[in-house]
Amino acid sequence: MVHAPPSDTPWWALRYEELAGVDPALLGVSDHDAEAEFVERLAGFGAGARLLDVGCGLGRQAGALSQRGHNVSGVDLSPRVLRLARERWNRLFPGERGPNWMPGDMRWLPNSGVYDGVLLLGGSFGLFASDADHQAVLAAAAQQVRPGGSLVMQTPNPYWWAAKAGTQYVAPGSWADGVEVVQNVRFDAVAGRVDERTICFVGGRRVEPPVQSLRAFTPAELVALVRGAGFREVEVSGTEGWTVPEEPLPVDATESVWLWVSARS
Ligand SMILES: C[S@@+](CC[C@H](N)C(=O)[O-])C[C@H]1O[C@@H](n2cnc3c(N)ncnc32)[C@H](O)[C@@H]1O
Questions:
Q1: Please, are residues 121 and 154 in contact by the beta-carbon 8 Å criterion?
Q2: Residue with CA at minimum distance from ligand 1 atom 13
Q3: pLDDT tens readout for residues 27-36
Q4: Mean pLDDT across the stretch 106-129?
Q5: What is the mean pLDDT of the chain?
Q6: How far is the centre of ligand 1, averaged over its atoms, from the C-alpha of 215 (Å)?
Q7: Does the pLDDT value for residue 1 go beyond 60?
Q8: Which residue among 18, 128, 255, 256 is buried most deeply as judged by most CB within 10 Å?
Q9: Which domains does the chain have, with CATH numbers?
Q10: Does residue 66's CB lie within 6 angstroms of at least one atom of ligand 1?
Q11: Taking the model in full, what pTM does it have?
Q12: Pocket-testing residue among 52, 127, 134, 135, ligand 1, by greatest number of atoms within 8 A of Cβ
């Protein structure tokens, strides 16, 4: 099974920019305020925590956490996505000081050791073809947090996707105004990956960004990976469907779309 387009540039460096070029709303539509509140609760962040949102995209959660009084930095590979994040913030909260937006590759972040929390949310973990890269991401995260600081991750639940993969039509206005989307999701049980083909139709134009191929780790794999990076007190919880939970929920193989991981440095 080929998980990447035949190009030297990996899919993860192309797909999100292309989707953002069609309509930034295609980078995410879920409830970011509820996510921010849940992240706070899961990690027990106090007021004014210093947070690093890795693979921050449009800054949905970084922005919401900043609004809740935290001192947030968002790092993303794509300068174009970061520009959109900055524009989105300025449009929503003109004149307010928002997150600090920083370009960078999540595998090679400069060591800082100052953050109270490092976040990998909404499918930012699992992008790479090799699990050595996923280990590098967690090793880099471990270098960012202060002793006693937290890691919070949100990753797709492979058991749910194994059962629910398929094709759906998304009407204009549902994800983005004026954009029709056909989404085909396939679960590769051998590789443990969720492969998502997305075809957008906008004003008669067809746009098909590279297939997203996310490594979907089982809870046991996540615990081993996160512990291997030096974190402790690793907990994995689930969701009921797509909804952001108010409290950590048990992982339910067929109900939990997402896995939430929390750990301490
Ligand atoms: C699935 S999106 C998630 C965005 C955001 N966390 C959210 O939930 O809305 C993944 C993001 O990771 C970024 N990304 C891809 N490869 C990266 C890398 N090597 N280092 C840092 N960011 C990367 C993409 O540009 C994209 O914005």
A1: yes
A2: 55
A3: 875 678 899 9
A4: 95
A5: 94
A6: 14
A7: no
A8: 256
A9: 11-157+218-264 (3.40.50.150), 161-207 (no CATH)
A10: no
A11: 0.95
A12: 127
